[in-house]
Amino acid sequence: MRYSTTIEDLKIKLFGMCKLRPSKTTIHKDGQPLTKEHCTLLYYDISQGSQLDASEVHVKEDDKKNKMRIFVRPSMG
Questions:
Q1: N or C, which terminus of the chain has less Cβ within 10 Å?
Q2: In what order do the strands lie in the sheet with 25-29?
């Protein structure tokens, strides 16, 4: 990942790695949702060592959320 990676790009990478569907995935930093998908990691002040939580939201209430913790180690560029 790079600091210029957008939230949308991150969701696409997550789909490739762990099959979390981008349209159903929410990403949080410190409990706050990252809702502006066109914004970059740098915009959200995400740097090396930041922890993000990604989860796939299901329509049914009885479904459990698929959650994963992301540890950020972006490269320069």
A1: C
A2: 32-33, 25-29, 51-56, 66-71
